[in-house]
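[AMINO ACID CHAIN]
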Amino acid sequence: MLTKRIIPCLDIKNGRTVKGVNFRNLIDAGDPVELAKHYAKHGADELVFLDISATLEGRNTTLEMVLKVAEQVNIPFTVGGGVSSIENVNCLLKSGADKIAINSSAIKNPCLINVLSEKFGSQCITVAIDAKRINKKWTVFMAGGTIPTSLNLFDWAKEVEQRGAGEILFTSMNNDGIKTGFANVALAKLTKVINIPIIASGGAGTVQHFIDAFKIGKSDAALAASVFHFKDISISELKKELKKNQIPVRL
């Protein structure tokens, strides 16, 4: 049985890790390289770095940070933010990233998913989907959750899989930062419409929330930020509790 993954997420802005609520009111959460070292040492299975202002500012992800992180960690890490071309991906992978995440660029140019998966392999292409439940429908947003699209979460997820993505990082904007649990109903529905791994994001506040994401949401991995950054939950203790609840994890 495949083990479930625990993934700290580091949202990067101006070289610092930040965290907000519902994608707003960002506060400083520390140095990304130091946090990466800490998480790699204390049981994280992977890391995700998202340069959250890169798309809005019309630039690529900062390579300097990627190089520094690659020197300090021995676990896989994914990098996203402003990735929009083969050249971007090539630079990130050469700098040490194991996977890349695309979001807005995939919405603007869906064929990019095909191109990147064919060039680099689907195993290193993650499509991040930010969606908000509005009037009982899940609407996909782009540009760091600032621009709504006409896309439906489940239809877009199916298209993303068909185009060659290796996994999906689904963030519920409704749940983000409020620590009331993941969007488990939507997660469970996603697992029925697609076959690639799904990373749950948005809403972690307690150990039980992670248990629910795996047992109810059927997700393959659970991603969180503030509960790890501000030491509300330790990854090693979280994994022990998951194990007690018959959820397979790497200890």
